[in-house]
Amino acid sequence: xxxxxxxxxxxxxxxxxxxxxxxxxxxxxxxxxxxxxDLNDPFEGIFSAAIHIPPHERVKFPFFLxxxxxxxxxSIDDLFLSSKDSVRICSLSSSLSEVxxxxxxxxxxxxxxxxxxxxxxxxxxxxxxxxxELPSYGYTILTAPSAIEVLTHKTxxxxxxxxxxxxxxxxxxxxxxxxxxxxxxxxxxxxxLALLDKMKRSDIPIIHTEIDPKKVEIRAKKSTxxxxxxxxx
Length: 233
What we know:
- The chain has helices spanning 20-26, 55-58, 99-105, 147-151, 190-199, 223-230; strands at 9-14, 30-32, 34-35, 46-52, 69-75, 88-93, 112-117, 125-127, 129-131, 136-138, 153-155, 163-168, 172-174, 179-184, 206-212, 217-220.
- Mean pLDDT is 88; it is low at 228-233.
- Helix content is 18%, strand content 32%.
């Protein structure tokens, strides 16, 4: 999606009801990475494991018709050398216009979307792939998937999120000098606008958004409208 000559711009949605994670970004220049089990998808980290039964094992049970392969449901906790406590995720999106992202992750358009430039850090960012079914892998020491392989696959229920993920073992991910703008929801409170203006660096713009009734999406307001909105700060 992001070519060599294209900036890798992603968005982190946040509610302003709890400012701790917003302070992490604006003051400490870091993104919080949650344990994968704390995320909102009940199928997070689950996959189908195809287990092969070789012929020399099947002949040991002549009275049973054993299949060559059978499938079990596994999670990354079952992977070899895997630990659920060491796998952390920070979810981002390539979309600024998706209404459901603003509704679900930015407090019904009362929160914010933080624009972050990850150019040059592409190896640390993983694009999520979507499919109708859970991903399927082999299940031996040689064929079992890595935690990253499993955690970059989700069902199509979530495709609207256009998600990219930071997946690592650390609680925080450094984004020093990478925050480029703060987009604010159309329902944001004036007190939150004032707080953001005091918390952010002076060179980071606050950009107001509005609903687009024709396209049924969220869009940034035009620059002239931005100037009028800024007068309220």
